[in-house]
Each structure stands twice: as structure tokens, then as C-alpha cells.
Amino acid sequence: DAKRDATKNVTLFDPILLYARQMRTKLVSELRTAIDAGQLALYYQPVVDMATGRIKGVEALVRWNHPTRGLVMPDEFIPLAEESGAIVDLGRWVLRTGVAQLHSWAKSVQLSADFTLRVNISVTELQRLEFVDEVRDVLSNWSVSPSQLVLELTESTLVTGTESERYSLLGLRQLGVGLDIDDFGTGYSSLNYLRNLPVDVVKVDRSLIGNVVEDASQRRFVAAILELIQSCGMDVVFEGVETKEQAQVLRSLGCSTGQGFFFARPAPPAQLESILRAAAEGSFLPIGVSF
Ligand code: C2E
Ligand code: MG
Ligand code: MG
Ligand code: MG
């Protein structure tokens, strides 16, 4: 129709859009070389048992050390990687690097047997039929038990529920890998759909807990969500815990697992190793905190 044609003309001749498109193309091609050039890095953030202060595991979060732009955050390039297909190579690099790191930590620091590494994966990776085999190979290469790996999938990307996704989810589950729904509360999947997914843990998005301390109605809302998830037989992890008060409120509502700047920011492996070492000696919790 006419409206569409009009938009078409605008996009064709708008120099700003043309420029934006060129930048995008440039970034995509840079991203493809970034993996081989060793410009990607994994940061790790502890996942904490808020009742005891014990570190239950870490989440791997990718960063891009861009030669001219500096440290680029994943929200800026993961969507691009997904659209361009580069996410498959990127995801493979993340999985290998994370699992290799866990293997190395298992030797250098004292980790509990149920310590887990959480890795974010994109639905594009999940839809590949080879995915489960690749995960199995990486784990066996590094002698890491499948139960020590948890894959995180964002709620909003899972709503399609295709056959290939289901195939991979069941394969991963059979392998013994843990599955999380990430960013719960930001998507729009039906609760019934969530209930039928083969996942063990729901990570509640930080946008839901922002003012849980000040706002009683927000607190009731979070309490209801907690109960709902738990009544589906799943565990809850709260993301974005930034203050002691938030941690205490969440605990009082019956949620024992949290992750956030209050406990520790995502950090490079060496820094995380000192945290893990301190935790093994019982001195990890932020100063002044007693649970
Ligand atoms: P996510 O998986 O939900 O990861 C949590 C994000 O929240 C991280 O952002 C983390 O730095 C941030 N965060 C943690 N605690 C706090 C807090 O207390 N306050 C605030 N304001 N933020 C907190 P980051 O590292 O920028 O990652 C953003 C997203 O990029 C991730 O969200 C995940 O969806 C995606 N991502 C990161 N690494 C990978 C990866 O290797 N593969 C894929 N497919 N996606 C990734
Ligand atoms: Mg995540
Ligand atoms: Mg999240
Ligand atoms: Mg996210």
C-alpha cells in the first residue's frame, strides 16, 4: 500500500539510516573476527545462598574488548550476533571457555560438589539439532559433570516453543544439565506454558524487585510470584539484589537464592578466583552483613 511504499522510499534514501546500516554491517563483521582474535572475555558473577552466604555458583557473562570502542557490553552485541547468526560461534566459545574455567577452578580452589556454572544461551543455539551433542562433548572434554552446568534461557525468546527447542530441552535434561528461565517477568509467556517447560529454576528479572523494600504492594506482588513459581515445583533466583535490605526482604518472603551487585559485581576470572578463595575460608560476605 501507499504507506508502505512511502516508508520504503524513506529508508532507501535516508542517509542516516544508510549510515546506521553500514555501522551495523561493520560491527557484525568485526564481531565475527573478534572471536578468533581473542577479543571476547567472560566475566563471572556469584550466585549466593542468601540464608548462609554460601556461593552456590557463578554466571558467565560475556564482554567484548573492542580495539577502539573499549569494553562493549552484551546488550549491545548479543542481539546483533543473534540476527547475523554469529551467535552460534560466539555461544560455542562462551560454553568452552566457561567450562574450561570451571575445570581449572575445580583444581585451584575448593568448590563444593554442587557448585554450578550458569551460561546464557540464545534460542538460535537451542534450535540447532547438534546443540545437545556439542554440550555433551565440551563437558566430557573438561571432565565436568553435566549437573555442574546450568543453561539460562530468556523467557521472551522461548515463547515460540518449536519442535526443535523442545527436542534440545529434553536432550539437555536427559544429559543432566540444569535449565533456567531467565528474566522472568519481562516476557509475556503464559504461565501454563512456563509450567510445562522442562526447567528447574526461574530467575526473576531485576525490574520486579527494584522497590520491593519501600513499596508494600510490590512486595505482595513479588510474594505472589514466588509462591506461584514454587507451587509449580521450581526454585527461584532473584537477580539484581543491590542492597542488604532487598536481600532481607526476599529472604523473609521465602526466597533463598540471589545474585546482584550487593553480593558481587561480575568480575574477570582472577578476581572471581580470589572471591571463591575467600568464600572457601568463610570470609566472602560483604562487610557488616550477618545472615
Ligand atoms: P542476564 O543473563 O539476565 O544477566 C544478568 C545481567 O544483570 C548482567 O548484565 C549483570 O551484569 C546484571 N546485573 C547483575 N547484578 C545486578 C545488579 O545488582 N544490578 C544491576 N543493575 N544489574 C545487575 P550483562 O552482563 O550486561 O548482561 C546482559 C545480558 O546479556 C544478560 O542478562 C544475558 O541475557 C546476555 N548475555 C550475557 N552473556 C551472554 C552470553 O554469553 N550469551 C548470550 N546468549 N547472552 C548473554
Ligand atoms: Mg542470565
Ligand atoms: Mg536475567
Ligand atoms: Mg537478560
TrEMBL record:
The keyword Kinase does not apply. Signal peptide: none annotated. Residues 24-280 form the EAL domain. Keywords: Membrane, Transmembrane, Transmembrane helix. It comes from the Bacteria. This is Bifunctional diguanylate cyclase/phosphodiesterase. It comes from Arthrobacter cryoconiti. The lineage of its organism: Bacteria, Bacillati, Actinomycetota, Actinomycetes, Micrococcales.
